């Protein structure tokens, strides 16, 4: 809920200020429907996800903000722009008829920091549990070798690792902290595209970490997120039960849990975004994993460039064709010219056929790319 | 959370994490056992013993009868893996040399050898079964085949066995009636394994070739050697290896055709009043003997795969897998008898009635038979010699005599060889 109005008209400063350590404005991109918390002077900025239009502030009452406490943890940006050169260069090369705007310099100069949210839940659990726990042990086996030429039998002992499974059950009364669960509908696609984050690198939230950054707002409420949180809690409980039973493995873990005092907070994951303009002057977003430097985005070849090249080749073909006709006419006087004319005619035909290649190349390359904005992660 | 927790059959176990309770299945009651089980009649206090006829415990004093356990597990009896821990424990043996047993009936303290699983008190005659401690649980006998044949029947079997051969002295059949057969449970290991072997060898193929030499066509047999290879998979189920060195392996091998389908879980009742021995041949040694049998058999199977029996430079690599073992007790009757100041052993399979043993040879009988076999030949030969002056008839007698002599010598040698073998058993 807003607690005061900023100096900018229609801009709402939300109550997150008190817990987040500074003021933010909730904004939305009307093209891609992504919501962000941004600095109050955001108005001139494009959407850092689709780059199709400017962000619009969300007037009070028109959007129900999720119950956002200040983030508890932040995974800091590990990859610095200075070290992205090679990756970005690989991204921009090997594109047939690349758009002029797709250069390393452009991508680096337009880099934008964004944080993606993840829910963290703390809960108290009372449960009865059942499982099979496994204990490693070694068995002795043998191998034998026989050779007529080397004195008959020889054998050797080999040890093999095996698991002995035993049933266990018990009761559990434990607190589980910071169980992470997706806060975005697109979470799975983002992980598939960008790769997973090493959550153990997360640090305690400090406002300096998110200076000059966009913070994506969750689009899943905690009720939805709980569906994925509870298996994660169960997995954590299974692991603890394994340790409690001094076992090496656990399987077929089942339990009857009773949860209480659930507390939801956020963890922020780092993502760079940037863009280039394709031949049609449409902004194509590019995403860079903030921990690993993995780059993903649509690499679009320029159809205009391809068409231009095709046209040039066609003009050449027409020129050769005309020359061949002239030579053919001249062969009335000098018959040998007829041979050159026929040869020229064949070359003109081949060149004309080759004129289709640039267009086909661009079409084929663009066809293999993911669909472009506004929804890359969908 | 109102229902009882943990459910029946579970006991608390140590947990290394606060807030988590761990329960594990309680050991089976069977496994928590007294070290020595005394068999006294609950009605009259006299001694009870296993009765072969009905397979239960009976009191010969008051007629009390306790029904036998019904469960037969047969070849499905639990098998164990060769864990490092088990092999080490088996090699270590039982520790110590003797057990001190205090009789609960009369209070007498008796020292019994460590490998004895049963004991009958010399003072009051009460039967005891000595059970091993839980820590050595895996290495105590878990299964056995109960006695099916009574000691009295062994005499009949022995009489038939002794009477089967004319070479043994006729008096032996009377001795059988007075021989005491002692029922003993002997320790055995059973082993299971799969073997997979890859072999290769040069295999000889014989061919006949014709060639021209010195103006003639000749034939020559040559062997062409070609490399062959193959793969063999064999399953070995319940290979029996004796766990004791105290009895003749030769005799034991002859009666070892036990039907393991009749295995039952170990119950002290089955041992009451009988003798039983624990193993002296450790598990690892038993397994080694079994492996040698398996690998030799697998080698034969590999060689049989070759396209001809002519094989040289044979080599194979073999892996054992799914190895398992059991420690079981099998019933036999042992007896000894004296004849001509010599002691002879007899062994009866107490499940099937198969008998093996040593039998003396009545050499007078054997030599008489030998002489009788030679006599017709010698006699006819002599007649032939006498009648030679009469021409052809003498020659005919001589030839027939020689023929009968040859037949008599050959038959006699066969009988003598059999008699020597008999004597060596």
Annotation keywords:
heterodimer; A: 378 residues; alpha+beta; two-stranded antiparallel ribbon; flat; disordered N terminus; B: 425 residues; 8-stranded mixed beta sheet; 3-stranded antiparallel beta sheet; 18 strands; 27% helix
Q: How much of the residues of chain B is beta strand, in percent?
A: 25-35%
Write down the Rg of chain A: 32 Å
Task: Tell me the total number of β-strands of chain B.
Answer: 18
**Fraction of helical residues of chain B:** 25-40%
Determine the structural class of chain A based on helices, strands and strand pairing: alpha+beta
Mean pLDDT of chain B: 82
- What does the oligomeric state look like here? heterodimer
Outline the structure in words.
- The complex is a heterodimer of chains A (378) and B (425).
- With 378 residues, chain A is α+β, with helices and mostly antiparallel strands.
- Chain A is built from 8 helices and 13 strands.
- Chain A has helices spanning 16-20, 85-92, 104-109, 187-194, 222-244, 303-330, 336-354, 356-367, and strands at 2-5, 12-14, 25-28, 35-38, 56-57, 73-74, 112-147, 152-182, 203-204, 213-216, 249-277, 283-289, 295-297.
- In chain A, the strands form 2 sheets. In chain A, strands 3, 4, 5, 6, 7, 8, 9, 10, 11, 12 and 13 form an 11-stranded mixed β-sheet that branches.
- The longest helix of chain A has 28 residues, at 303-330.
- Chain A starts with a strand and ends in an 11-residue tail after the last helix.
- In chain B, the strands form 5 sheets. In chain B, strands 11, 12, 13, 14, 15, 16, 17 and 18 form an 8-stranded mixed β-sheet that branches. Chain B has a 3-stranded antiparallel β-sheet with strand order 3-10-9, with no helix packed on it.
- In chain B, helix 2 packs antiparallel against helix 3 and helix 6 runs antiparallel to helix 7 (392-424).
- The model of chain B has no long low-confidence stretch (mean pLDDT 82).
- The A-B interface holds A 126, 128, 137-149, 153, 155, 159, 162, 166-174, 240-241, 243-246 and B 1, 5-7, 10, 13-17, 19-25, 81-85, 87, 201, 291, 295, 299, 312-321, 323.
- Strand 7 (112-147) of chain A pairs antiparallel with strand 16 (311-339) of chain B.
